[in-house]
Structure formats: structure tokens, C-alpha cells
Amino acid sequence: MTLRERSLPSDRVRRLGRWFATHGEHPNAVRFGILLLGMAGTDDDSDVLKTPGALWAFSSEAREALARSRTDPCRALFELARQAEGWARVDAVRRLEGASDPEIREWLIREACTGDVLDGYFALTAARVGDLAGVLARGTLDEETLDGAGRILRALTDVDGPGPALTSYDGAARALNGYLLHSTAGGITLRRLRSLLPIDRFLNETHGGASCRGNDEWRRVRHRLAELVADPASRDVVLAGLTAEEPGTRRLAAWAARWMNLPARPALLRGLESEPHDSTLWFLLVDDCPSEDISAVVEAAARLLPLRDLRTGPTTGLGLGTEYELDGILDIIVSRLGGHPGHGWELIETALNNRTSRNRRTALRALRGWPTEFVPPAARRVLLAAAAREPVPELKAEMEQEARRL
Questions:
Q1: Per residue in 185-233, pLDDT tens?
Q2: In angstroms, what CA-CA distances link 251 with 194, 279, 330?
Q3: Of 17, 34, 258, 402, which is least surrounded by CB within 10 A?
Q4: Half-sphere exposure (Cβ direction) of 62: Cα atoms closer than 13 Å
Q5: 3-state percent breakdown (helix, strand, coil) of the chain, nearest 5
Q6: How many Å apart are CA 90 and CA 123, to the nearest integer?
Q7: Among candidates 65, 58, 97, 61, which has minimal Cα distance to 78?
């Protein structure tokens, strides 16, 4: 017999549920408390349920309990969506499908997508429920709404995310036309290019190409975007941004330059002189770096990064967390050196002696990409010394194997 089939006093079930949900020392105890509140809870239990509901481990159970116990479950899910993060936020926003409350629909457009990598999992819900196309058809929009709309469109066209969903949205072409109109009304800016350039990329790749070819409205959008990207005014905005003093502006311009195939490396190298710990600038410098430019990047890294401090000796840690910021930058650079034989040995040697197993593995992988004639004579000795200290057995064996190759 299930609990629901028993004639249990609801007030006592509720009190027991609150106690387990707030005092449970094991995840299953907390889940049990949430279950009881889903059976006997009231509107007064919302805060008790939203606290664990903001965590991925309990988000599914809390959503169900809120839906069962609240007189206005949609409102409760909205409140949960506003405070949840990560996958818990994804779950909560997805459950807002069908919401009609104007406040919820406005929030979905303005604030639901934050620029996080998980936005793509619920951007389609935000566009449909919030009526993105209808919002963008208005005569005037404030900056917050336009920013939010841009984030939704960016998530819907993210070809590197969970799967671009723009073509699944019936109002997609109308939304794009509206966004283009509002974005260019006062002249193009870096903020707007940040959203428009990924959309242009989407429309010119396989994902969006089929839709564009068979529909006049889509073709017009594609043509307008192509004109915008090719406009000298857009180029001037990006090049000016690359020389800006403000790091955020410079970072936006660097991404835009990458998408527009504009020469940005000299400006990025200058930017690193004042912001040597900016991982985004390092990534944009070294990723897909042509052979003729890699020497300048490697020289800057050897000069600007505290390589001596990064030769900490091995641990078993992967290197997760903000305290590993510099280790992460080293990883970004060394992970690309396998394609540039003979360049960056000092960085590879540093990574072989770094505290994170990820960096040591990355260094080994880079070295494997070098033909033996490009490997310095000291490499075999360095590898054997690193292997002798290596605490990860698998990595130790790989280092010894690479030393034998050399």
C-alpha cells in the first residue's frame, strides 16, 4: 500500500516532511521530506521546497512537490527558475511551458538566458512562451529586453551547443527580422554584433542553410546579415574595440574579429601586456594560430606568465576551481603546441612539472605531436625525471613510453 492510499493526518505528514527536507543528513532523507510535502504541503512550504529545488540533486523532486502543493504551481516554478542555477535552472525554465502570466513571459525574454552554456537547453521554451517574435515586432524596446532577446537568439543558433533549435521556432524569421531592425536602428555596436555574428554563422552553415534556401523570408534575413557583416562600419567598430582600454570591450571585439576574419593578433598581444591573466585573450591568440604567428604568442607566454611558479611539482588534482586560473591558461596554450613542432618547449616543460594532472597530460600529448627532429635533446631527460615523480600510474607509464620513443 502506498502512502497516498493511507489515511494519514495531513498536518502531521506536512510537519514530518518539513523536518526531513530541512534537517535530513542524507540526500534520500531530504528527498523523502520533499515527497511528503508534495503530498501534504501548502503554499507556506514554498520556501522550504525552493531551497533544495535550486540544487540539481533535488530539482526534479522539488518541482513535482511544488506543482502538487501550490495553488499556483506555475508561479512557484517561476520563483524557482529565478533563483536556481545550472541544470536546476534548466529544469525549472522548461517547466514554464504554457505559462500565460505576463510577468513570467517578460522575464523569459529579458532574463531567462544569461549567456551560460546551458541556455541552449531551454532557449526554445523562452522564445515560444515569451513570444520572442511578438516582442521584437514592437516599435520600441528597452536595452534590457533587446539584450535578453539577443541571448535567446544566440542560444538558439549555437552550433557548438546542445543543438541549434532556431528552425524549430515558428516565429524565427520574424524574430530575426525584428532583432536586426532594432539592433541597427542607432548604428551597429559591439554588443549587438556579439549576437548577430553567431546568427550569421548559423545561417551560413549546414544547420541553417537548408531552411534559408527554401524560404524567401529566411533568404532576406540571410542577405541582410551578410550585408551587415561586410559593412565597413561593422569592421571599424570591431577594430576600434580591439584597441579599447576596457578589458570587456576588448574581449568582445576579439571574438567579433575572429568571426569576421579580421586581423586581431597584434591588438590581442598588446592587450595581454596589461591583462596577462585574461584566459579569453590567450585562447583567441593561440587557437587556430597560423605557423607564422606562433613564435610571437609563445614568446609572450614565456615572458608574461610566471612559469617558475607553475613548476610546482605533480599532484593528482585535475586543476578545477578559480585558484587554478594560471594553470588553466598554461593548458590553453600547451594544448595547441602539438601542431607547432619546435615552438614552446619551455611551456611544455613547465606543464610537465605542473601540479595538475591535466596539464602534464596535455604536455605529453603536445610532445607526441612533434617529429623527433624537432624535440630538444633535453626532452628525454625531462620526461624521465617527470615520470619518476608522477603520482598517476597511467600517466607515469605514458611518460616512460614517450621517453623511449625519443
A1: 888 899 899 889 988 888 887 655 565 556 778 888 888 988 998 999 9
A2: 11, 10, 19
A3: 258
A4: 31
A5: 70, 0, 30
A6: 9
A7: 97
